[in-house]
Amino acid sequence: MLIDQFLEYLKYEKRFAKNTVTFYEIDINQYYKFLKKDILVSDFDEIAAFSNEEFIKKWMVYLKKEKNTSAATINRKISSLKSFAKYLIKIDKIKISPLDKILSLKNKKRLPTFVQENKMNYLEEKKFLLFTNDYAGIRDKFILELFYNTGMRLSELLNLKHKDFDLYSKTVKVLGKRNKERLIPLNAYIINMYMEYIEKKNEEKYLCENDNWLFITDKGKKMYPKFVYLKVVHYLSLITEQKKKSPHVLRHTFATHMLNNGAELNAIKEILGHSSLSATQIYTHNSFKKIKKIYKQSHPRS
To answer: Do 168 and 237 fall into the same domain?
Structure first.
């Protein structure tokens, strides 16, 4: 099938991340399922599905009105279809993409959720109450602090190996989106935490059986996304009452606090591994909100 060829193309030629390829697969298959079930198109194939602009518009209406899908999600799904259409043009299956005339829906910009600085300080101030002093406790604290001190993604943290840490240059190497490597600077606090973690890990002999990976579970297995996600949610629940809690919230927290404390936007962009500055600029909204508050509190005329 052409879909399978397209997914292989994304994996091996475009070198897209596994999760990204999965989203493309889900989006395109949902569109086909809609055509078969709701539009009742008979005997259509993958090419015919991209020959009718009206089919795509009806799908968008269906997602919005029947499924109450957000504008952001619909735009992502349409983007998946556009990429598939471009691939079909590339391999000479179609001449023109009907999606070229499809406009994106207006999307309300959501400001990134972050944890207040004084709340994050509780992780250190109350560490003896929040974390146990065994391997699991030291590992959990190191994970949270690594997210907060580097802004790395969950997938990047899961794939860390011991060799990725260079204590001489005080950097850690991470493998980001599209297999792009980047170096993130480490401060003395994180380096000390790394050394403490390694010492505790080496004390537990059974943990060394899977010593290729930096982070492993209590049973010595490679760390997996849900394990880390639940750990982060648990500890953030102890220091903040905000609803949204996740590893990505800690990434937002890192960027927001850096900007609020004087870091240049370009520097934050490089550390986060953003491909363009526009992706980083969303953090300026949170920063400007703080500036307005300070202005209102400080200016004699306000």
So the answer is: yes
162 is catalytic: no
Mind listing the pLDDT tens digit for each residue in 140-171? 999 999 999 999 999 999 999 999 999 999 99
238-247 long-range contacts, Cβ below 8 Å, gap at least 24?
A: 238/122, 238/130, 239/115, 239/119, 239/120, 239/122, 239/123, 239/126, 239/130, 240/115, 240/116, 240/119, 242/113, 242/115, 244/113, 247/147, 247/153, 247/154, 247/157
In a shared domain, residues 201 and 85:
no
Q: Is position 18 annotated as part of the catalytic site?
A: no
pTM attached to this predicted model: 0.69
Among residues 251, 252, 257, 269, which one is catalytic? 251
- Among the listed residues 77, 139, 153, 245, the single catalytic one is 153
User: pLDDT tens, 263-294?
Assistant: 888 999 999 999 888 888 888 776 655 655 65
248 catalytic per annotation: yes
Same domain, 156 and 229: yes
Quick one: 285 and 255 in the same domain? yes
251 has catalytic annotation: yes
